[in-house]
Amino acid sequence: MNRIQLLALLALAYGASCQAAVTLQVTTSVHHEPLKSVTKSPADSKSTLYVTLADDYITAQSDSATTIYDFKNRRRVVLDGASKTYVDYSLFDTAGFRVFEMRNRIGMNAMLAKLNSELKPARKVDLEQELSLAEDSATVIDASTSGDALKFSSGGSPLAQWSKHGAKVGARDAAHFAQLLRYTQSVHPQVLARLAEGGLIPDSLNFTVNTAMGVSTVSVSVEQVRSATPPAYTLQGYTPRQAAPPQGAIEALLDRMAAQTPEQLAALRAAHPCDTEANYRADQLLDTMLGRLECTLSTGAAMLPFTPAQLEQIRASTPVSLAFSATSVSKQEDFAPAAATLSGLRSQAPRKAYVLKLMEANNRARLGQYKECDQLFGEVLEANPVLGGAWKDMGDLMIMRFDTPSAWRSWDIGRRIAPTLPNFAFVNQLEGEIAKRQPEYLVY
């Protein structure tokens, strides 16, 4: 899909209430200077984006795909022009990754500071520049003018500079351009704030990014800045992507469930009803207990209660005791035997063995056995795709792997299935913290 086709696609949703926007071409060149100790570094690169800065969204079209940053709905939609498919992501996943990565880097810095090593902790400002994220405003950024360039540095090290020449635009368009760079480049938040308030889209910008691998110099040129009439974007002519298993089994599972209509979700729920009193089996107590737990994890409703006599039987059940003891371990050396216990109990739960697999997957995740986890989660969600708690736990696994796009996709699916499930309180709280502490990623 070329630029003209993209604009034609967007124009399908044009309405009289639309406000002014800006289109522009952004070309980025990246040069890497690796440290002497680094034997392999990324190749230099050059890419071009055709951009629309609209009233409540940004589109950025490359040769391979078009990304729509939808700030109104807090979504990031990626269109594949060749296959006419799209993938809908959460706008939280980008900020979420950078928050987790910043915390990880700070932890590594603290560890390096304690070691007598040639490796030195990264400077705070360099982390903030690389991740376009700052937890506070304590970093001092110095601004200076040199000829027709505005320069920014910290502690004598260059961070950014841009030309005073370019397209004079309104305050909103300048802020929107800075937001584009926040998502597509590595630029310190304080520098982006200065760019946003400048009333100018510079024709050239340069950024210096210091990493553990070396120094990257980013050169950005901006051309063809034009006023435009921004339509609301549309996905007309596109269908949700369907990844192909088995190579992308989890990805295919995410795609399939993300594409479910409300009617299809209702049909899936009907096909996987909760257990009732009639399902109680005194000779299959583990199976019975797992069935009632499954209902809670699927709907968020309280577990169907047991009678006093049934509770007495449950408490005396060795398989039930073994299963739930295996889910409450906290020491690293206990996760492997607990996972083995859960695997060995499957024969005791002929209907609901996949709920045991969910418990086992959580233990194996803490052992770093991610391949085994993928297999288990795939089997669990093939058996019951509306098991909301499984989508929550699989999202947690993706976070352990720093795959925040897949994590938020999994969490979004789970919250759509079981919005009142208490397990998602962590996700809701995390999004609230990001919105409060990094509002610049969500406010447009």
TrEMBL record:
Domain of life the protein comes from: Bacteria
Keywords from the UniProt entry: Signal
Signal peptide annotation: 1-20
Listed name of the protein: DUF4412 domain-containing protein
